[in-house]
Amino acid sequence: MKKVVVVGSLNMDLVMEVERMPKVGETIKGNKMSYFIGGKGSNQAVAASRLEDNVKIIGCVGKDTFGEKILKHLKEDGVNVESVREDNCAFTGLATIFKTPEDNSIVVIPGANDFCDIDLIKTYEDVIKDADVVITQLEIPMETVEYALKIAKKHGVKTILNPAPVKTLSKEIINNVDFITPNETEFEIICGQSFNNGEELEESMVKWQEDNSCNLIVTRGKHGSSYVKDGKVITIDAIEVKVVDTTGAGDTFNGAFAHCIANEFKIEEAVRFAGIAASLSVRKLGAQSGMPTLKEVNEYFK
Ligand code: RIB
């Protein structure tokens, strides 16, 4: 079993099912509200764990009922939560998700995720040192992300940054990352350009890859995922499935991609495998409910 370490957020997701998004100043009646375990870090950890990796998560929850529920659920899903700190300073992170039949919008209140600090990474440096791959996102403080990546690199551990929710990235961060996995919108911010069509996106990807040493993979929802090889963009199409909820599809891609990098897949295989996992994940409501097992992904991959 390969070792995947996730440094990232843990949230309780409050999912409101609505027919359409409310307009500014409008009150609308929703259909249903459900609680799901979420947070990009916790989602990516579960995605990798379902693929039979040995997964540890470093992060923070509050000392409250949501925190307890998240830790219990992650343990049941095979994720080691010994390096999650239960913090007195804040409540567990919360995400309110408005889900329409077509799409979703998310508001995150970070709570304890904002207290995931450099000290916590120092405490668990050995966990990072022992990993085959470290994956992180941007729902915890930037200095923590920066430090975790630096420590991973110091110990020769492969690193993946999923730059979500997107922020401007320093050269130092990028230099400590082996693989960066923005979606199209996030990539616009990272490269400082907007695109009117796929061709413009691909030109920017080639240019960005020429200027940076970390491998760029752009996830493109139902259009699949793209990476650059020998100065050309290669796109792996998504597989077609009946979509119930796309929340967490990006996280499934990232958790599965971490599994592939830990297991030394070639990049083309890793992007295809992670794309299949992401497509399969959208068939159920809730970020983690539809995340596939290794057997399910392999049925399509092979
Ligand atoms: O990527 C989906 C996740 O974003 C949700 O689970 C929510 O918690 C937010 O962090």
From TrEMBL:
Entry annotation: catalytic residues: D251
Name its pathway.
Carbohydrate metabolism; D-ribose degradation; D-ribose 5-phosphate from beta-D-ribopyranose: step 2/2
Q: Which residues bind substrate?
A: N11, M12, D13, G39, K40, G41, S42, N43, E139, D251
Q: Which residues form the signal peptide?
A: none
Q: Name one GO cellular component term.
A: cytosol
- Cofactor dependence: Mg(2+)
Describe regulators of its activity.
Answer: Activated by a monovalent cation that binds near, but not in, the active site. The most likely occupant of the site in vivo is potassium. Ion binding induces a conformational change that may alter substrate affinity.
Reactions catalysed according to its record: D-ribose + ATP = D-ribose 5-phosphate + ADP + H(+)
Location comes to: Cytoplasm
Enzyme Commission designation: 2.7.1.15
GO MF terms listed in the record are:
ATP binding; metal ion binding; ribokinase activity
* Residues annotated as binding K(+): D245, T247, S281, K284, G286
Top-rank taxon of the source lineage equals Bacteria
Q: Subunit structure of this entry?
A: Homodimer.
Protein family: Belongs to the carbohydrate kinase pfkB family. Belongs to the carbohydrate kinase PfkB family. Ribokinase subfamily.
Name listed for the protein in its UniProt record: Ribokinase
Q: Which organism is it from?
A: Clostridium paraputrificum
